[in-house]
């Protein structure tokens, strides 16, 4: 039997950050993971270059049943703090798009950095290690594992969400939450491509590969607590539906059974422009649209909406042009689902923040039990926000255990 001050389960982004922080405060820490390979999600993140933070991070970039919960941790460990760590380890980085910071060389360097930070505090490792049971007896957490019994005064659960089961995601955090009586916000795939009924999608399936900048919206954007969102980003047509940053972002807000609305030509009022041009533009409709949209898409849209490709703009009735304008500026689609956890970058929902302290991440009714990272009902937008939450919540718990 081995005895520690702190056991951290899950050696991913949040778990390593938490273990290093606690260990460098002098705590005796054990870090446990069931995987054979360390931090696979960091390794594959950002196309292998890890978009490790976003310098523009604010609480508005996160979804949660309680949008205020993330504020404390995010304000106490900021993107600048993580950048300072990256600089201390002499890792090259660059800004790519809207405040997103990526490693210039490889995501491996972030993993090495976190390993070094753990080593600086003399963190003990158990990996690969499977946990059979967790009990809380006389104020001590007792873990039965396939490498022996581990006891710890504090237990941090950092096993992430359900996305990408193929590289080790499990529902461990949710099972522990349920065992100790914490509430859950229903988990669902987020930052995920959306799919459509195959028959309805058939006319668009052959547009697979086309990408363009669009504006996409879903839900209500009104009131003090809007449930919806709007993003202007790139969209990508796929065989089964839509992907690309615009769709990944909106997928986190999309509620099954509701539509998404896409403006394929943000900034151009298509109906008004076409009606105005009727007198002067002599071209066929397909050629007019191809000035603004990829040709294959312009043709696909015309056919899908029952317009002849060789119809001349001058011959079209205004009502038909308004219909076409709406189909382009307010293309309203009802996804039949998403590509699921197999392709989702993150899991929305998780441990209900009502049962956690926003300062320490400790369960309010279970002394010594902490939940951090993606396991918690705090989900970031695409663009480095999810790692920033992993670092910030990891540090918050690491300073408190
Ligand atoms: P994380 O998933 O990192 O770690 C959980 C750990 O727990 C894993 O090591 C796992 O093996 C372990 N574990 C699970 N079940 C266990 C069990 N039963 N017993 C023991 N151990 C267990 N975010 C971002 O900000 N920028 C980016 O560039 C990207 N890119 C990206 C690409 C792809 C393809 C994906 C899938 C995700 C991203 N993300 C991202 C999201 C980001 O990777 C994610 O939000 C964080 O890794 C979450 O950190 P956690 O430490 O909470 O979980």
UniProtKB/TrEMBL annotation:
Lipid biosynthesis found in the keyword field: no
Organism superkingdom: Bacteria
InterPro entries membership: BaiN-like, BaiN-like_dom_sf, FAD/NAD-bd_sf, RsdA/BaiN/AoA(So)-like_dom, RsdA/BaiN/AoA(So)_Rossmann
Cofactor(s), names only, from the UniProt record: FAD
GO molecular function: oxidoreductase activity
Keyword ATP-binding appears in the UniProt entry: no
Keywords annotated in UniProt: FAD, Flavoprotein, Oxidoreductase
Domain RsdA/BaiN/AoA(So)-like Rossmann fold-like as annotated: residue spans: 5-399
Domain called RsdA/BaiN/AoA(So)-like insert: residue spans: 188-346
Pfam families: HI0933_like, HI0933_like_1st
EC annotation from Swiss-Prot or TrEMBL: 1.14.13.-
Designated name of the protein: NAD(P)/FAD-dependent oxidoreductase
Protein's organism: Duganella zoogloeoides
